[in-house]
Write a structure and sequence with these properties.
By secondary structure, the chain is an alpha/beta fold. The chain has helices at residues 16-27, 44-61, 76-88, 102-111, 226-231, 241-256, 260-279, 310-319, 344-359, and strands spanning 5-6, 68-73, 94-99, 116-122, 144-147, 149-150, 155-156, 169-172, 189-193, 204-209, 285-287, 299-304, 322-323, 334-337. The chain has two domains: 16-256, Type I PLP-dependent aspartate aminotransferase-like (Major domain) (Aspartate Aminotransferase, domain 2, 3-Layer(aba) Sandwich); 258-359, Aspartate Aminotransferase, domain 1.
Length: 360
């Protein structure tokens, strides 16, 4: 099989070593006599997989199991848009959101169904071509919510804002978790769909402080209560077994590469290659993020000034084995997603192509 350069934003590229091991597990998990697709989630084989993935994730996030709980849930990050306020917002409280793009907008829309929502900072007036330049949080907010990386708009928080002491701090880290250096201990709850840096589609990770659990109302339907899932050892209902298995393999691969600090250096080099090529031809390309310090290392978004050449650009890229460069349908243009498993060679191929195409 000849691998293409997969620039898709998610589900995204996975390491070949992980795919190979997962394919063996589909036939037989170890010497169990059954496929990973067939094992019971209450058995010792899955219990070991579940615990290993949990332990590796906390280790890579530099968090203690004494302080943080890990849940493997379904429904994607979109379900967390509703599950977070369902657990931590009420009609007499107000949560504060930093509005940085489409996904933060959807998160706010869900939260408004449960309580008050205040926009503490926004870049909507600038069409999200940068992060908010100013913000203000209230000391009595139910919680503050931030989207650490904006997959569609191509912006990323390198240094996340400080929140008032005592205010819970929540983060949707779906598209840059473990892909940048970040102090996760600053957050009380982090959630992320796995299909970008963590693993395949089908599992959503929720990492939250155990001190939050007693604050969750008992009136919430059990399936949507973090407290219920925690009490059941994150096995309240059948987990997404295969997705957790592959995620565990991917986390093992990440550790074998030298951990987060090593892949962050690679990610920085990959992003620099592409951004330098785009910036070298301002008469051809327009990076959509106007403040360079706000540019994402995970999702590079840009346009052609001559939109009539877009089809030509994509066909030329596909001829060189590059796929997934078309921008999100809501904004158009192009997007190159350079997650942890994306090879540096692919970033160089794209950079070279950008220069050749501009030269034409």
């Amino acid at each position: 099989m000849k691998r293409i350069y997969n620039f898709n934003s998610g589900p995204a590229v996975l390491p070949v070593e992980v795919l190979e091991e997962a394919s063996r597990g589909v036939l037989e998990l170890g010497r169990s006599g059954v496929s990973i697709l067939e094992i019971g989630h209450r058995g010792k084989d899955y219990e070991a997989i579940h615990q290993d993935a949990r332990d590796r994730l906390l280790r890579l996030m530099n968090l203690s199991e004494l302080d943080y709980e890990v849940l493997f849930l379904g429904g994607g990050a979109s379900m967390q848009f509703a599950m977070v306020p369902l657990n931590f917002l009420s009609s007499d409280r107000t949560a504060e959101y930093l509005h940085t793009g489409e996904w933060s907008g959807k998160a706010m829309a869900e939260a408004r169904k449960f309580g008050g929502v205040r926009v503490a900072g926004s870049s909507e007036a600038d069409r999200f071509d940068r992060l908010p330049m100013e913000w203000k949080f209230s000391p009595d907010a139910a919680y503050v919510h931030i989207t650490t990386n904006n997959t569609i708009e191509g912006t990323q928080w390198k240094d996340t804002p400080e929140v008032p002491a005592g205010v819970a701090y929540f983060a949707d880290a779906s598209s840059d978790i473990l892909g940048v250096e970040r102090d996760y201990s600053r957050f009380d709850l982090i959630y992320a769909g796995a299909q970008k840096n963590l693993g395949p589609a089908g599992v959503t990770v929720v990492v939250l402080k155990k001190s939050l659990l007693p604050k969750i109302p008992s009136t919430i339907p059990s399936i949507w209560s973090y407290a219920v899932h925690s009490k059941a050892g994150a096995l309240y209902n059948t987990p997404p077994v295969f997705a957790v298995y592959v995620m565990g393999l991917n986390l093992k691969w990440l550790e074998s590469q030298g951990g987060v600090s090593e892949v962050v250096q690679r990610n920085s080099r990959k992003a620099a290659l592409v951004y330098e090529a785009l910036d070298a031809f301002p008469g051809v390309y327009e990076p959509t993020v106007k403040v360079k310090e706000h540019r994402s290392a995970m999702n590079i978004t840009f346009r052609l000034l001559d939109t009539n050449r877009e089809a030509d650009f994509l066909s030329g890229a596909q001829a060189l084995g590059m796929d997934g460069l078309k921008g999100h349908r809501s904004v158009g243009g192009f997007r190159a997603s350079l997650y942890n498993a994306f090879p540096e060679e692919g970033a160089q191929v794209l950079a070279d192509y950008l220069r050749r195409f501009a030269g034409r």
